[in-house]
Amino acid sequence: MRVTVDRVACECVAVRLRALNRCITNIYDEALRPLDLKVSQMNILVAAARMGTARPAQVCEQLHLDASTLSRNVDRMKARGWLETVAGEDGRSQPFRLTAEGSRLLERAIPAWSKAQHQVKKIVGTTFLNQLEQALDRVGRSAAD
């Protein structure tokens, strides 16, 4: 049992990816902190900007979020005036879009994001980034099968 526990502690890919995710997220969050914005929220703003009218199911799929996480973030972002609800056709989903304030915030956030992006790329390196893209492609293909 001890060998198995040590092996899990030393080799678990999930634990290592989660730790890396937390470290990288902290770099982006620190860069965006002066704007009172988190990278998770910025990605929702970006999704809304790209989609025009963002449908929650599409945003969840694009950002690999569960519906409750998206809903919680969108509610907070609406309260801050960054997003607004758009009347949906079926009344069940609540599409949303950027407000003018959300658009201005996104514009102000881009330089901070770029700085964090550069820092992260420098830390993890080009080889890792290429391998990450390949792994994400494989995961996407296997999910489609």
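Above is the first protein from milestone M3; the second protein from the same milestone is given next.
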Amino acid sequence: MWLFDRDLWSEIFHTLGKNMFRTFLTMLGVIFAMIILILLLGSANGMSNGFDKIFAGTASNSLFVWGQSTSEPYKGFERGRRIRFKIEDAEILKKNIPAIETLAPRIELGSHRGIVTVYRNGRTSGSAVYGDYPQIDEITKKKLVAGRFLNNNDIKQSKKVCVIGEETYELLFDKGEEAIGQELRINGVFFSIVGIYKPNDNINIDGENTVFIPFTTFQKAFGSGDRMGWMAISVEPNTKVSFVESQIKTLLKNKYDISPEDERAIGSFDMSEIFNNITAFTMVLQGFSFFVGIFTLLAGVIAISNILLITIKERTKEIGVRRAMGATPKIVKRQILLEAIVLTAFAGLIGFSISIGILSGLDAAFGSGEEFPFVNPMISIPQFLVSFFLLVGLSVLIGLIPANRALKIRPIEALREE
């Protein structure tokens, strides 16, 4: 097979090695082009991974629903009626909307974002106090520093236990003091601390100065009855959150006699919108990076074509001799194309190696940071293969220009040139 012809490759490398300095300068354009392409793609991937890290622990297919005040009169009810959900609503929604994967009812002590004074040994903390089910941890994951989170046994037995945030711990305890097993007091009721958490580095819904207690314990300790403040909900994969949100509001509006046109009575927040916007942003960024990289590569490959055109003119006599000795146009064209491919492929691999080294340095410097959203800025294997074969394809197309120029050289005229 001609591709494994040692003489052919020997001649190619001999031709390229005649003027090493010029060959190197020719490759520089492709080297820098590949560096730019890989750095852009890697940086875009690093940004995407960074966003994934920031939002890790928060269900991307989740939403939050709460009651507000009506904005329209309906069925004899006046405008401004306060909508207060009941715990039975959670069961109604789960029963009638199969797309709901997890539903965690929640109630808060005091008004919305109310602050409650928490006591311990003469020290106080103005904290948010929530009655929760363990399922809330599946939607907004907590990083436990010590102990555990609420569990189903706490719910069944209405245990007087709680999980506190790091800020709450700092206000109520001395640094290094053991908190697990200690008690604190909320509105005259004592709770035993079973866990300490810190929020994920994402959308901070709960804050750090927060106390979580079992929902059933909250009902008995603070007399909340069957009231429910709001619901954290995650939906089944491949299901649009907005569609489930619409179903939820329709059911609740029917139950509480709310006008179908009333958009204010039931509040909601679709977390998937944030994730979808971020995903769209990273995809546009990756597409833009690839678009810029392609034209940069094209500029580098054109430079190689121009140099090959110059070398064709310098090798006029050589090509004429080869043609006179029986070399067919196909053989001459093949050699010129292979020279273009070898130059661009070798330059591309050098650029790829340099760019990977730069990206590794960036990852080492910023990848472990808590704030800078730049994690593992490497390209994927498909991205590398597409980039490399695109480079080779461009080299073939551009290499056709000097190859066709070589075919126009007539053997007799070439031999007469000198």
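Note on the second protein: The mean pLDDT is 81.
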